[in-house]
Design a protein that fits this description.
- The structure is a single chain.
- This protein has one domain: Rossmann fold, CATH 3.40.50.450.
- The longest helix has 15 residues, at 183-197.
- It is globular and about 50 Å long.
- By secondary structure, it is an alpha/beta fold.
- It is built from five helices and nine strands, in the order E-H-E-H-H-E-H-E-E-E-E-E-E-H.
Length: 200
């Protein structure tokens, strides 16, 4: 089955690491495709056209994907647009996983410091008005403002939160380390497992 995977990452510091991960995925079947590796200038141009234009650009990039793989570097967890890609992935029912890439060498052959899991910083909670996204900001959970509509419970592939206590998305998703867990060989199987878990 085709796995069209969107790779979400912090562009500036981790672009080369992310490309190294993508290029290692060479044994994938021909029908599998990767997304999220758009030209940085396209992202910047969309940003110049305003928030709604950028949201539309990222949502379009996520179209026709079934899995979102968050490539986590040092500060990926706090990036606004990575969080937006995660939220949109939940809304469209994508499988989700995190792959830590701090140990992947960059252009200067250097590694970086391990950061927090971005899926620890996004969650869902229930109110009388429905299920909503929350994000971890300034040491506490707050309502996520880049998507304020309620989330359809029937669209979730994992258990919906039972009450107003935020449940982090990482509760339902796997996390791997590309350098330490033999990602060069195993990333395809991690993606496949995330897809199966989400019924994709």
């Amino acid at each position: 089955m085709a796995r069209r995977t969107f790779f979400s990452f912090h562009y500036e510091p981790d672009c080369r690491r992310a490309w190294n991960v993508r290029n290692s995925w060479v044994v994938r079947p021909a029908e599998e495709r990767s997304r999220g590796f758009f030209d940085g200038s396209a992202f910047e141009e969309s940003k110049l056209n305003g928030v709604q234009a950028l949201k539309g650009f990222l949502t379009k990039e996520l179209a026709n994907t079934s899995v979102t793989c968050v490539l986590a570097g040092t500060n990926t967890w706090e990036r606004r647009w990575v969080r937006y890609e995660i939220a949109q992935s939940v809304l469209k029912g994508n499988g989700l996983l995190t792959v830590n890439i701090h140990g992947v060498r960059d252009m200067d052959k250097g590694t970086s410091v391990k950061g927090s899991n971005p899926l620890d910083a996004m969650g869902l909670y229930r109110t009388d008005q429905g299920i909503h996204f929350a994000e971890w900001k300034d040491g506490k959970w707050v309502r996520y403002l880049d998507h304020t509509d309620s989330v359809a419970q029937g669209g979730l592939w994992f258990a919906a939160p039972p009450d107003n206590k935020v449940v982090a998305l990482s509760t339902h998703c796997s996390v791997h380390d590309f350098a330490d867990d033999n990602g060069r060989t195993l990333i395809g199987s991690w993606i496949e497992a995330a897809a199966i878990l989400a019924g994709r």
